[in-house]
Description:
- With about 650 residues, the chain is an alpha/beta fold.
- The protein has a nine-stranded mixed beta sheet with strand order 13-12-14-15-24-23-22-19-20. An eight-stranded parallel beta sheet has the order 7-6-5-2-1-10-9-8.
- Helix 11 (about 365-375) crosses helix 13 (about 535-540) and helix 13 runs antiparallel to helix 14 (about 545-555).
- The model has no long low-confidence stretch (mean pLDDT about 100).
- Zinc ion binds near residues 129, 131, 166, 170 and 171.
Amino acid sequence: MIELPFRQVHLDFHTSPLIPDVGVDFDPEEFAKTLKDAYVNSITVFAKCHHGMSYYPTKVGMVHPSLKRDLLGEMVEACHREGIRVCAYISVVWDEYSASKHADWLQVNKDGTLAGRPPFGNRGWRFLCMNSPYVDYVAEQTEEVLKSYDVDGVFFDIVMQTFPGCVCNHCMDSMKKLGLNPEDDNDLYRHSLIVSRNFMDRMDKLVKSLNSDASIFYNSRLRLESDDEFGMRPEADYFTHFEIESLPSGGWGYNHFPLFVRYYQTLDKDLLGMTGRFHKSWADFGGFKNNPALEYECFTMLSLGAKCSVGDQLHPRGKLDKTVYNLIGSVYKKVAEREEWCEDAKPLSDIGVLISSSFFNDWRTDSDEGAMRILSEFHYQFSFIDSREDLSKYKLIITPDRVNMDEVLAEKLRKYLNGGGKLITSYKSGLAGDKFILDDLGVEYLGDSDYCPDYFRVLSPADKEIEPAEYVMYERGTKVQPIDGTQILAETYQPYFNRTWEHFSSHAQTPPDKKTPYPAAVRNDNVIYISYPIFRAYILNGNLVYKKLVRNCIDLLLDNPLTIDNAPSTARITVTSQHYNGKDRHIVHILHYIPERRCKSIDVIEDVIPICNINLKVRVDGSPSRCYLVPEKKEVNFVYNNGYVEFTVPEVNGYQMVVIE
Ligand SMILES: [Zn+2]
């Protein structure tokens, strides 16, 4: 397994051929020193950019017309002299130069338009097809870079076909040969995967033949997908590691990284989170991220078992921006101080959440995002998992809303439950036709609920901190009949009528009229079923009672959770485990930063708001000998009771790590 350094910069350099003075101010020593002074120990630098310009004397491609030096070569040498790891960046599907020369290499959408930037558009890029002879050109460029420069890895960017698939002449021909139907979106997407995987297979062999130690990463491919064939597993071997591109202010939002990393942490490869130094997104020249925001993003990576990468873009003249490297340096200094407790540390999880996001699920990541938010806000320890994961690692499995279950997964879950495992499932997860594939849910499926919105009332013992009331549920649930002996945890109430043009009352949903015989939540031994798409309902609407209902259901099933604490819902708490001196030690990560929607377009973090006197209980086997704050190395008083280490963290200023060893 490739082990990457902790502090990377991803240096973009998409520079128009119209810019006249590329690289004129570049000074290799100053470049490397600026990086080193900012605690950067790994960088991705550009061999070829989205404009299709190369930044070295290429014989294959097009050198940027105003470049008068071997910028790539000078960067590689200067960085290596300072002990900085260097990867070469090669833009794949976006290459404006090739797009302007080879109309027959362009990707075509299924409506006949060309993929990407239209002829008179000034945003985005045209798409080259990875099923066209363009790939030979990319292969020659890759070979040239690897033969000419001593780079430590290759970063292939934009390795994707248009969605769901390309219908250029090359693709139509190959679909025909493969027996795929271009009129069927499933087949189009299936073909995109074949084309992308063929590309990766070819590059994999090429890169390894020239440099067997090189890291190889293909960007734009990381996704959450529950379907085996369409998911990451069949192509994971092409990646030496994963870099999760996720700029919270660049369209990804603050939910994306925590969701993705909690899946990719289960795939047993080195991980990087990649944010940006920009106020907004890539190429936001003159837009600088607030320091606490960059802290939060980098520390979130550490707390979830990932290393850090920060995206920047070099000015055309080749000088790194001091303001940017002061910002990165101030955060990377803190990362460097904490690395010793992050090396090879693995996140611990009580709960495995089976991914519901899928090509086949038009709710996309909604349910998974909802589950991620609920579990994070209550500080549960969890991972997102696919159907290949070993379920026995988890004390509780959650299948949010619309998890597709084939017979193989169902059988795996049956075995898991028979072995004492616990399950929380909601809405239509595991619904096969008109019945649930698992017999253990304690209900019979009758169809969709007749009313939406409707109401629910939570009963004991699932009603902790929930006032007795009829709570509105905005999303349509299922109508299920409890089987004899099933415990009812919540009941549904129907309104007088659904709101339509013929009958409506007041401004919004019709008030509740009466109780129905159809439950909102039931328990059957080790299984709790919630009839609403409760996870999606939370991410769409944010009602506190949705979150509390899920928490109360978890607490009914999950004995002895890894952590118990009194921190507010704005805090994030994770636990990692690290091998140390022949034993395992636990590291607790407490983060407290609050993204706020301060402008119309993005969430902003401006302040670090301390939280005080956080009481924590952490489940560990046997009484530890020490408990201390890091990087301060300050001892913390603790007691060991019933399998838990109990201690108080006096103050968390943004990020506090506590080591239990
Ligand atoms: Zn094509």
